[in-house]
Amino acid sequence: MRHLALDQVQFSSDHLIPVVVQDSQTKQVLMLAYSNLDALEKSVSTGEMHFFSRSRNQLWRKGETSGNTLAIDSLSLDCDGDTILAMVRPAGPTCHLGTVSCFEEV
User: Fold this and answer.
1) Cα-atom radius of gyration of the chain, to the nearest Å?
2) pTM to 2 decimal places
C-alpha cells in the first residue's frame, strides 16, 4: 500500500476529510465517506478502510458487520490536501443496500 503523508492532510473545521473510494481494478467509484485522523491512522495501520460516522459520531471499520471490507491499495491526497482518494479491493458489495456501488443508477 502506498502511504499517505498524514501531516499534509487538510482537515475541515470539524476535523473530517472526505474520502472518495474507488475500486482498484474496475475504476468504479464505490462510495464517499468521511475520515478523521483516528480513522486514517487505523486505515494505514490495518490496510483496511476505516471511517468516521457523522450520524453515529464514532469510528467504524467498513465491513465490520457485513464482512464487506475494503482492502487498501493506495491512499492519495488531492492537490489541495483536502480530499482523499482511496483505491481499494472490495470484498463484496460496498453499499449498505447490497449494491456494488453507492452510486448505482436508480
Assistant:
1) 13
2) 0.92
The pLDDT tens digits for 43-99 are 999 999 999 999 999 999 999 999 999 999 999 999 999 999 999 999 999 998 999
> How far is Cα 6 from Cα 69, in angstroms, rounded to an integer?
22
89-102 confidence digits (pLDDT tens): 999 999 989 999 99
**Secondary structure, 3-state, the chain:** CECCCHHHCCCCCCCCEEEEEEECCCCCEEEEEEECHHHHHHHHHHCECEEEECCCCEEEECCCCCCCCEEEEEEEECCCCCCEEEEEEECCCCCCCCCCCCCCCC
- Which residue segments constitute the domains of the chain, with CATH numbers given? 6-90 (3.10.20.810)
Contact 99, 92 (CB under 8 A): no
